[in-house]
Amino acid sequence: xxxxxxxxxxxxxxxxxxxxxxxxxxxxxxxxxxxxxxxxxxxxxxxxxxxxxxxxxxxxxxxxxxxxxxxxxxxxxxxxxxxxxxxxxxxxxxxxxxxxxxxxxxxxxxxxxxxxxxxxxxxxxxxxxxxxxxxxxxxxxxxxxxxxxxxxxxxxxxxxxxxxxxxxxxxxxxxxxxxxxxxxxxxxxxxxxxxxxxxxxxxxxxxxxxxxxxxxxxxxxxxxxxxxxxxxxxxxxxxxxxxxxxxxxxxxxxxxxxxxxxxxxxxxxxxxxxxxxxxxxxxxxxxxxxxxxxxxxxxxxxxxxxxxxxxxxxxxxxxxxxxxxxxxxxxxxxxxxxxxxxxxxxxxxxxxxxxxxxxxxxxxxxxxxxxxxxxxxxxxxxxxxxxxxxxxxxxxxxxxxxxxxxxxxxxxxxxxxxxxxxxxxxx
Length: 427
What we know:
By secondary structure, this protein is of the alpha+beta class. The protein has eight helices and 14 strands. A five-stranded mixed β-sheet has the order 13-7-8-1-14, with no helix packed on it. It has a three-stranded mixed β-sheet with strand order 10-11-12, with no helix packed on it. The radius of gyration is 26 Å and the shape is globular.
């Protein structure tokens, strides 16, 4: 009798365990959808740490979002796959209608779409060139992966030509990557997935709780850009060699919104994507963002222009509305001109920010005492002048382009140009 009771107790325990596992997996698959009103920073430049052992898969770093802290960097790291023959599809951001949506990464037998983002080290926009599974073990491509061949013998060498130098971290929108999923990637998106393993989740949580990972602190250049293993933020961690341009306010807290996908229809999510912030939030937004110069008194006027010192403080311009002159061919031409100008201006902002960052580093090395403080002040004044001149030049370019388009839009034939005019109404 006692043995029968013990068997029943064991079976009951197994049933409870299975229920808990099922609930946990179901909750993980539901997930949370996140939208942000401005684009994430560009990707920083960093070296890949040495692979710690066989069958580890490289998972690139990415910018994540927290409603309280804003964008923060999740370092790239080496992770053991949850199952053999499974690959990692990286997370990415994509413009959807009126804001940027976050798509989390996942494990699967085929690599899915990750926005065409060039994360490097094998993730060049589509698929993965850093290695492949063979007979239950992972083989590494030495041409793009940092492995020690004296410890890891499953290697091969295939040269990959990576012509993309774009470090943009989002798909679509103004200045974003224009890639679209292939048929194979669309199929992969519908197949069985495994979400991030517990080590990856803890890795992300540690990054979120670390103030140095937040863009408000590192300004797009995280001090820990990659780690050897998940959570190893100190031993063997790699700092960013070069930062990514920051778009939009540095420390805004009311620009993002998260919603549980399981309890809101997709259309309702789009309609309610950007709710009106409460009065307390509107009061906070009147204060100058952290790391931005305070505005002068004349900026209280509604028509005054904000003063920015560096290009990464300038909010990302909103995408232009599609021209609608009635001439489809002419509208397409103007749309391409607008996109070309937007990309050129984005590149100019990025180049100026890089030059200013280099000057910051040079002055920081020279400043051995407080006596050289005036040199830093002169540099910031010069940076502010450079940034303002660039903004004025961009505004003039946009106005010039619009002025060339307006006459053609006004001359567009009306909808009933070929029909007879209506007769005047008789009294």
